[in-house]
Sequence to fold (225 residues):
Amino acid sequence: MKGIPTVLITVSPEVSSQMRPPRALYPNGFKIGNSLGKPNMRGLQLKVLRDALSLLTEDTRPGKIITRDYPEYGEYHEPPRVKT
Amino acid sequence: MTFSRKCVPFTPFDGELAKSTVALVTAGGVHLKDQDAFNIADELGDLTYRIIPEDVDVADLMVTHHHYDHSDADKDINVVFPIDALRDLQAEGFVRGIARKHVGYMGYTMQLKAMYEGTAREIANEIDKGSRADIVVLTGG
Fold:
């Protein structure tokens, strides 16, 4: 089995971490439904996508979710928590 | 092949982004308007997926998903399925290509085993065979 490298963009880092994604980016405070940011903010969408793809060439620890701040998003939403 | 519950199925990437082709796989319920919508009436969820072609016009895409607010995706699908953003990255040479196939499914199911052992493998096979993708970007809602 060869496999294809993947990177996840998640706005629910706690939930996603349960699935142990090989590489993952959490844009800090983005709400569900806004994985890449807000509608028509192409510059922000590009930045998030570029950062996610860049995780493929960075020495990330498998299973670790990388949090990045994007102040231009202009809002902060608490991510959903895993129910215990 | 069965994965350990604790193992991270990590596939190394030893290529260059500028020489790589990228596929998008979204759990955000994205599909073409002329494809069957996902079944949101079934409490167990929908285990099917839709193939989205490389040359898709975003005006032909829509979202069927009842477990997140997709009103922003309805205005600009790139917030969950960044195909135009990916085209911009290709234009600037950050990545080489757009894969021939992309995949949308509805990331809500009460049938986790069937999703994990069935749908997920079928999607991986779709990408592996004929999409020419070197990399997959996964998004949720």
Summary: The longest strand of chain A covers residues 6-9.
